[in-house]
Amino acid sequence: MIAFIILVYSSFYFLVFGKLGLLKKTPANISAFAGVGVAVVSTIVFAWFTFSPMTSDARVFRHVLPIVPNVSGEVTEVGVESMERVRAGDMLFRIDPTPYEYAVRELEATVEQQQAELALATVNLDRATKLLRTSAASQVDVDIWTAERDAAQAAIANSLAKLGHARWELEETVVDAPTDGYAPGVALRPGMRVSTMPSAATIAFISTAETEVLASLSQSAIRGVQVGDEVEIVFTAMPGEVFVGRVATVGKASSEAQLDAGGSILTATGEPVTDRWGVRVLLDDPAVARSLPQAWGA
C-alpha cells in the first residue's frame, strides 16, 4: 500500500512538470516537490498505522483436544475418518463393553441379594419386637436384628454407588466427539488397546466450536486498539475476499517484561523494547469461522 501511494504521488510529477507545465524543472522545484512528497507520504503512513494499524502476523487458531477415554480396553469400532467433519455427540470409537457389562450384572445381583437380606432382617426385627412385648424375646434379639437391618441398608447403599460407577464405565465405552470438529489424522483401528493415561491420547481432535484469529501488533500500533473495534481480515489463501470481525481481547503483556524468581539481578541492556502484543479477533459470521482451516495465515 505504501508503494501504491508513492506511485500515485510520483504520477503527479509528470502532470506538474510535464503535461500541465505548472512548474519548471529546476533543482529547487524538484527538491520542493520531493520534500512535499516525503512529508505527505509520511503523514499518511503515520496516520494509517496510528488510527488503522495492520499486521501480517495473524493466523487462525483452534483448540486441539486430546481424546483420552475414561475406560481402557480393546477398540472394536472406529466411527470417524481423518478430516471427516463430525457433530458433537457423534461416535469417535467404541471399546469392547463385555467386561463392563459383566461388572454391571455382578453388582445388580449383589444388590438383589442384599435387598433380600434386608427384607429378612426387617421381618425378623418386626417379629422380635412383637415377641418382646409378650416377653417371648429379649431386648438383645431386637438389637441384633436392628443391627442386621442397618448393615443391610448400608451394604445396599454401597453396592448401588458401585453399580452407578459400573454403569457409567459401561456408557464410557462409547467415546463421542466433545464438540463439532474433525480429527486430522486417525490412526486408531479395531483391535488396538487404549488406556486412560493422559499421555496416551488416541486422537487429536480439532474443535470448530470456537474459531479465533490471533494477531500481533507493535506496541506503537496497538495503543489505539480497543475491545469491540471492527477488524477487516484478508487471508493469503483467499486474496481479494475481506472478512469482518471484532476485537475480543487485547493482550497488553510480553515476555520482555517478565520477572522470574531467581538469584540473578535483572540486567538492563539499554535496548528499546521490541516485543509485540497480541490481539484476539472473533469473526462476525460464525458459519464462515467454522469453515476456515486451522493455522490459516492472514
Structural key phrases:
OB fold (Dihydrolipoamide Acetyltransferase, E2P), five-stranded antiparallel sheet, four-stranded antiparallel sheet, elongated, 298 residues, alpha+beta, 5 helices, single chain
SS-derived structural category: alpha+beta
Rg result? 37 Å
Q: What do the pLDDT scores average to? A: 83
User: At CATH's second level, what is the architecture of the domain at 64-207?
Assistant: Beta Barrel
The fourth-level CATH homologous superfamily of the domain at 64-207 is: RNA polymerase II/Efflux pump adaptor protein, barrel-sandwich hybrid domain
What is the fold named in CATH at topology level of the domain at 64-207?
Answer: OB fold (Dihydrolipoamide Acetyltransferase, E2P)
Name of the top-level CATH class of the domain at 64-207: Mainly Beta
Uncertain stretches: none
Alpha carbon gap, first and last residue: 16 Å
Strand order of the largest sheet: 1-9-12-11-10
Layout of strands and helices, then pairs:
Layout lengths: L1 H18 L7 H25 L6 E4 L2 E4 L5 E6 L12 E5 L2 H36 L5 H33 L2 E3 L4 E2 L10 E2 L8 E5 L4 E6 L12 E5 L7 E10 L25 E7 L2 H6 L7
Antiparallel strand pairs: 1-9, 2-8, 3-4, 3-7, 4-5, 6-8, 9-12, 10-11, 11-12
Helix pairs in contact: 1-2, 3-4
Summarize the structure.
40% of the residues lie in helices and 20% in strands. The two termini are 16 Å apart. Helix 1 (2-19) runs antiparallel to helix 2 (27-51) and helix 3 runs antiparallel to helix 4.
